[in-house]
Specification:
Elements lengths: L2 H6 L3 E11 L2 E5 L7 E4 L5 H13 L4 E10 L2 E9 L10 E3 L19 H18 L1 H6 L2 H7 L12
Parallel strand pairs: 1-5
Antiparallel strand pairs: 1-2, 1-3, 2-6, 4-5
Length: 161
């Protein structure tokens, strides 16, 4: 698929998972409650677009980070986790994050189905890796987030053929 054909579809969308800590647990909460939030990005910087929307709807986020990409919803989806600051946007409906199995691919084939729960699981594992390996992320996250993320670990690619 050429870049031109991607542009003619719904182009690029951000799939946003807004996370907060509540009672020591990770909770999914945002403008769409616990559901992912989809934003048309167009030719703009995706991180800037997601950050701007988050600021406009909820106030300054603690962290905006892209964790993965895939083709879905007729576009290229860039998945983001947005971490809210303590006490930010408490009126937004949220639900505790539940663990799930990762979507598994073959060496040269994507999984036949990828749920948003699996994307979030991948995103939290990615964030857990950054909390241990990236000085900026480590310095931004409070001890509560580090405790929550300690249970998440990246897993290696399992299929080599």
């Amino acid at each position: 698929m050429s870049a031109t054909s991607i542009t003619r579809t719904r182009a690029i969308q951000a799939e946003v998972f807004v996370l907060r800590l509540r009672g020591g647990l990770a909770e999914l909460a945002g403008p769409r409650g616990p559901d992912p939030w989809y934003i048309e990005v167009g030719s703009n910087d995706p991180v800037e677009v997601v950050g701007r929307f988050a600021r406009n709807l909820m106030g300054e986020p603690l962290l905006v980070h892209s964790t993965s990409w895939r083709r879905a919803r007729g576009s290229l989806l860039l998945s983001f986790v947005v971490i809210q600051r303590d006490g930010q946007a408490p009126e937004m409906v949220g639900l505790p994050v539940c663990r799930t199995e990762l979507a598994r691919s073959r060496a040269s084939q994507v999984p036949s189905e990828i749920t948003h729960q699996q994307v979030l699981e991948h995103g939290l594992r990615h964030l857990a890796w950054l909390a241990r390996d990236d000085a900026t992320v480590e310095s931004l996250l409070c001890e509560g987030w580090k405790r929550v993320l300690a249970d998440y670990a990246p897993q290696p690619f399992r299929h080599m053929v």
